[in-house]
């Protein structure tokens, strides 16, 4: 069995599974239950000046009968007194000295406030700090959370203030509610961040009740924007992770968050550069025990791959993520339909006919049976048919050896550029 | 399925065809869809309803996340014969019957998901368990059926040195020999046997305890003995003509079909099956698949009182088996050559009175005797007890049902524990593969607790 332990910027934990700062890590009772269930670390529900929460806080998006495809909340940071949280952190750490306990922090953007809270939480023995510059609602209106997280200078300044007194590693948690996440990530690093974590929740409105015309959720008939998370946000998180992981100027370990609910998600995040991961929604949907399935799946996967440590996954796919301009325009795939697995739902035909390149024909074979066939010469290799195909192994995307040398858009532009240069050069000489 | 015709010869191909597993397994797509329908309940009622307590939501989540090894582990960890159980458990009465979706939509197809995961393990020949660190203690297990295998496996995982004594050439008990192949192929049961053998358990076949080795020898040689010898064949029905040619014991009939093509020829024949339990149903469907042209079940009570599971009854009806309710067989009649020709029966009626077992008492209708023309009679009125063996060990019993302490499974001899069908009856559980497995586990844990606690004591006294 592989070694699952990780070391994220000096924070050690028995496995890469951490609970994200959120309701599951609200109290010592919960965090200790989580550790008993198998979680390797927990980022405590964000500490700061206690707030008041609303009643009705969450909503979820169900997709075709599956519940909680996405999750939405308008909850703020911890509503419990700081002293109580600190006492419970101390007790938890004492009971679980080898598990990672990280304090998530959010205070007004002043040096004094940051110094004060960092000292207080480090006094109770946390393994690290996570600065929450991500919460998109409520706190932002007070100039904290995403509001400060959207201002790169403020991220840098606050990170610096925290680092001035911190003796444990500092992780900066980033908001996805921004155009280019790498800008903020770089500023966090300039401020001295030892690691970054991403993503926090995405601005959202879960829905509108078409019968009562209220927002979902609503608080006494009124709603406000919330933060979106859960499986639906995974692709967004994964891209932001990848962008930061391949940015040389970021260059610090990353704790990946956003939509992780299975061991496969964990593998994907780690391959895309996460050193460890954090989970909120999946735990809220299923309870802490979900980690058992994740650990078991990850263990079996690592064994199958012959890897002795989970850390061997970190960043393996990062170099394969590049810019569109670097993709080989001469690479070619075409769709091929395997008749023996095809169930004749004709979804590929209509998808291609109406919305792609009209190259799947509905035919009748010699025995009078309906078949679907791709005209490969017209297929652009968009993948759509294989995406809508409901069965396993009915449509394969086949690589075609077309004999053309690789050529990206950038190569092409360079070539055209050099032709132009030589042309203008000739003229000058002439 | 399309069954054999009335061809006079039964070709090996036809036999293979008729006795191949009837129910198809789930496809990958089917398994993904079904597993994602599971709610992953907390403190799920299906777990409680499974006698072996398989963590069902967990194994289903593992299927949903493509971790089939993990799924198979979860199943086999709790149930050493989990692959057989996936096929033969009355799931409607157990796990699936308890599924919370029964009310709001339809229950999860737990049995077939369990089969999907264990089929994967069989196909990959996955090694799921390891033997424990040897602890110098030796246990003998009598009988290599579900109960014996479960006990042996758990003891081996605890580090005991275990020997199974099995009288037949193959272990697996009724899973290997008694349950029809089209419900449970023999290869499944033999894979489970192999899993136990791989943990270092010495399975000595062709070893009948009481004949090839005595109780005394076992009791001196081993630190504990698990008696898991099950029950025997069908007892005599005690009517005239029972010895005629063409009268078969249902369990022996099935057994013949488990190891290859049987000598019995039922092609085109009319068969009467006496009894209405699960064994009778297996005897009847087996006859159908052996080519019988007509199979009638003869039972003196009604559908209400029959003990066969609903799914078995439905299956038999689908196979074309006919049911003669309120019909009591009186004698079997043969021709001059000693071959069965008729079954004499009498019509019954329910008196309206309740018997000691709480079932309505049937009474013969005077003058209603009739002759049923048959070519073969299959008897299936229960199983004989292994009283000789039990008495050979000098154990207390009631009518062949070994007396045990229900928590420790210990018999009247403190060195002997009993599990499975040998303790079935007198309110001690149900004769099911899954309960036999659970009892085997419990006996193993009791032995382990007892013998290792002793060890702790002696260690402490040394210190
Ligand atoms: C026809 C039929 C159909 C059934 N269908 C189902 C079903 O669909 N679902 C279900 O859950 N249950 C079913 N059962 C019941 C189920 O098979 C039993 O409850 C289960 O096999 C009991 O397990 P066991 O280990 O106690 O006994 P067995 O399976 O009987 O195993 C006992 C073993 O001990 C061996 N043995 C006996 N005497 C000795 C000796 N002296 N020395 C050495 N070895 C000995 C035997 O050869 C045998 O291998 C069916 C039973 C029958 C007969
Ligand atoms: C109800 C709720 C409350 C949250 N509170 C906090 C918080 O206090 N601090 C914080 O940093 N993130 C908070 N988050 C964000 C999560 O930590 C996490 O970044 C996000 O949910 C994405 O992960 P997921 O898809 O696994 O849920 C909260 C999320 C939810 C759903
Ligand atoms: S989960 Fe349900 S019961 Fe618990 S606090 Fe929320 S609304 Fe109340």
TrEMBL record, chain A:
Name of the molecule in the record: Dihydrothymine dehydrogenase
Catalytic activity reported: 5,6-dihydrothymine + NAD(+) = thymine + NADH + H(+); 5,6-dihydrouracil + NAD(+) = uracil + NADH + H(+); (S)-dihydroorotate + fumarate = orotate + succinate
Membrane-spanning ranges: none
Subunit: Heterotetramer of 2 PreA and 2 PreT subunits.
GO MF, one annotated term: dihydroorotate dehydrogenase (fumarate) activity
Cofactors demanded by this protein: FMN
Pathway connected to this protein: Pyrimidine metabolism; UMP biosynthesis via de novo pathway
EC assignment: 1.3.1.1, 1.3.98.1
Gene Ontology, cellular component aspect: cytoplasm
EC main group: oxidoreductase
General function of this protein: Involved in pyrimidine base degradation. Catalyzes physiologically the reduction of uracil to 5,6-dihydrouracil (DHU) by using NADH as a specific cosubstrate. It also catalyzes the reverse reaction and the reduction of thymine to 5,6-dihydrothymine (DHT).
Organism: Paenibacillus nuruki
Alphabetized Pfam families for the sequence: DHO_dh (PF01180), Fer4_21 (PF14697)
SUPFAM superfamilies referenced in this protein's UniProt entry, alphabetically: 4Fe-4S ferredoxins (SSF54862), FMN-linked oxidoreductases (SSF51395)
Family under the similarity heading: Belongs to the dihydropyrimidine dehydrogenase family.
Entry keyword set: Flavoprotein, FMN, Iron, Iron-sulfur, Metal-binding, Oxidoreductase
Ranges of residues in domain 4Fe-4S ferredoxin-type: 333-365, 370-400
UniProtKB/TrEMBL annotation, chain B:
Keyword set includes Oxidoreductase: yes
UniProt feature coiled coil, ranges: none
Domain of life: Bacteria
Short name of one Pfam family: Fer4_20
Residue ranges of domain Dihydroprymidine dehydrogenase in the record: 17-125
Domain FAD/NAD(P)-binding intervals: 137-439
Keyword Oxidoreductase among record annotations: yes
Lineage: Bacteria, Bacillati, Bacillota, Bacilli, Bacillales
Organism of origin: Paenibacillus nuruki
Broad EC category: oxidoreductase
InterPro entries linked: DPD_II (IPR028261), FAD/NAD-bd_sf (IPR036188), FAD/NAD-binding_dom (IPR023753), Helical_ferredxn (IPR009051)
EC number(s) stated in the UniProt entry for this protein: 1.4.1.13, 1.4.1.14
Keywords: Oxidoreductase
GO MF term list: glutamate synthase (NADH) activity; glutamate synthase (NADPH) activity; iron-sulfur cluster binding
Record's protein name: Glutamate synthase (NADPH)
């Amino acid at each position: 069995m592989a070694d699952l332990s990780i070391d994220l910027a000096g924070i050690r934990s028995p496995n890469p599974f951490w609970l994200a700062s959120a309701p599951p890590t609200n109290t010592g009772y919960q965090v200790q239950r989580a550790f008993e269930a198998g979680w390797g670390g927990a980022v405590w529900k964000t500490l700061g000046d206690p707030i008041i929460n609303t009643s009705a806080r969450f909503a979820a998006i169900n997709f075709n009968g599956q519940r909680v495809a996405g999750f939405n909340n308008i909850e703020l940071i911890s509503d419990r007194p700081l002293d109580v949280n600190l006492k419970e952190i101390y007790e938890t750490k004492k009971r679980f000295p080898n598990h990672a306990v990280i304090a998530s922090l959010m205070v007004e953007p002043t040096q004094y406030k940051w110094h004060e809270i960092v000292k207080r939480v480090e006094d109770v023995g946390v393994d690290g700090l996570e600065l929450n510059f991500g919460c998109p609602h409520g706190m932002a209106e007070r100039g904290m959370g995403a509001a400060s997280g959207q201002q790169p200078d403020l991220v840098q300044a606050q990170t610096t203030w925290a680092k001035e007194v911190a003796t444990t590693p500092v992780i900066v948690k980033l908001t996805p509610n921004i155009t280019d996440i790498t800008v903020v990530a770089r500023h966090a690093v300039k401020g001295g961040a030892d690691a970054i974590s991403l993503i926090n929740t995405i601005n959202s409105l879960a829905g509108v009740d078409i019968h009562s015309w209220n927002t979902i959720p609503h608080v006494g008939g009124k709603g406000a924007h919330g933060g979106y998370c859960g499986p639906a946000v995974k692709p967004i998180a994964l891209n932001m992770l990848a962008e930061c992981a391949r940015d040389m100027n970021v260059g610090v370990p990353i704790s990946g968050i956003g939509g992780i609910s299975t061991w496969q998600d964990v593998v994907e995040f780690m391959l895309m550069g996460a050193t460890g991961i954090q989970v909120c929604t999946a735990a809220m949907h299923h309870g802490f025990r979900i980690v058992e399935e994740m650990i078991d799946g990850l263990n079996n996967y690592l064994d199958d791959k012959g890897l002795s440590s989970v850390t061997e996954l970190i960043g393996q796919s990062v170099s394969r993520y590049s810019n569109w301009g670097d993709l080989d325009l001469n690479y070619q795939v075409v769709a091929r339909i395997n008749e023996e697995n095809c169930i004749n739902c004709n979804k590929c035909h209509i998808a291609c006919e109406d919305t792609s390149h009209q190259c799947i024909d509905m035919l009748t074979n010699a025995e009078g049976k309906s078949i679907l066939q791709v005209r490969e010469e017209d297929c652009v290799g968009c993948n759509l048919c294989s995406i809508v195909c409901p069965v396993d192994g009915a449509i394969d995307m086949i690589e075609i050896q077309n004999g053309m040398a690789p050529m990206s858009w950038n190569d092409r532009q360079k070539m055209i550029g050099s032709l132009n240069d030589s042309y203008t050069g000739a003229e000058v000489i002439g | 399925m399309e069954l054999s015709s009335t061809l006079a010869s039964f070709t090996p191909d036809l036999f293979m065809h008729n006795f191949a597993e009837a129910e198809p397994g789930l496809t990958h797509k089917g398994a993904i869809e079904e597993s994602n329908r599971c709610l992953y309940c907390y403190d799920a009622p299906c777990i409680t309803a499974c006698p072996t307590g398989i963590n069902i939501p967990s194994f289903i989540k593992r299927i949903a996340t493509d971790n089939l090894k993990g799924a198979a582990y979860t199943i086999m960890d709790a149930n050493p014969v989990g692959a057989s159980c996936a096929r033969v458990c009355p799931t409607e009465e157990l796990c699936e019957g308890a599924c919370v979706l029964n009310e709001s939509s339809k229950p999860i197809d737990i049995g077939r998901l369990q089969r999907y995961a264990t089929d994967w393990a069989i196909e990959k020949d996955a090694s799921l368990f390891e033997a424990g660190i040897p602890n110098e203690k030796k246990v003998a297990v009598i009988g290599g059926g579900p109960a014996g295998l479960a006990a042996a496996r758990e003891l081996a995982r605890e580090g005991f040195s275990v020997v199974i004594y099995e009288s037949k050439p193959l272990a697996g008990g009724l899973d290997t020999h008694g349950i029809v192949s089209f419900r449970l192929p023999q290869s499944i049961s033999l894979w489970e046997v192999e899993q136990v053998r791989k943990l270092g358990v010495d399975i000595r076949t062709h070893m009948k305890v009481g004949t090839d080795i005595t109780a005394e020898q076992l009791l001196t040689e081993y630190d504990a003995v698990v008696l898991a010898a099950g029950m025997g064949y069908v007892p005599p029905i005690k009517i005239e003509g029972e010895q005629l040619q063409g009268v078969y014991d249902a369990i022996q009939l099935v057994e013949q079909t488990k190891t290859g093509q049987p000598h019995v020829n039922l092609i085109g024949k009319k068969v009467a099956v006496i009894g209405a339990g699960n064994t009778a149903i297996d005897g009847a469907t087996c006859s159908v698949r052996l080519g019988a042209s007509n199979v009638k079940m003869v039972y003196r009570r009604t559908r209400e009182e029959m003990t066969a599971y609903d799914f078995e009854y439905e299956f038999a009806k689908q196979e074309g088996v006919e049911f003669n309710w309120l019909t009591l067989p009186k004698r079997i009649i043969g021709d001059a050559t000693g071959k069965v020709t008729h079954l004499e029966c009498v019509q019954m009626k329910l008196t309206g009175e309740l018997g000691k077992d709480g079932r309505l008492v049937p009474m013969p209708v005077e003058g209603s005797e009739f002759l049923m023309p048959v070519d073969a009679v299959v008897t299936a009125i229960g199983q004989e007890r292994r009283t000789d063996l039990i008495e050979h060990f000098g154990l207390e019993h009631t009518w062949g049902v070994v007396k045990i302490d229900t928590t420790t499974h210990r018999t009247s001899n403190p060195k002997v524990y009993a599990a499975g069908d040998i303790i079935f009856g007198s309110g001690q559980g149900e004769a099911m593969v899954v309960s036999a497995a659970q009892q085997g586990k419990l006996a193993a844990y009791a032995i382990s607790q007892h013998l290792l606690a002793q060890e702790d004591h002696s260690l402490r006294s040394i210190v």
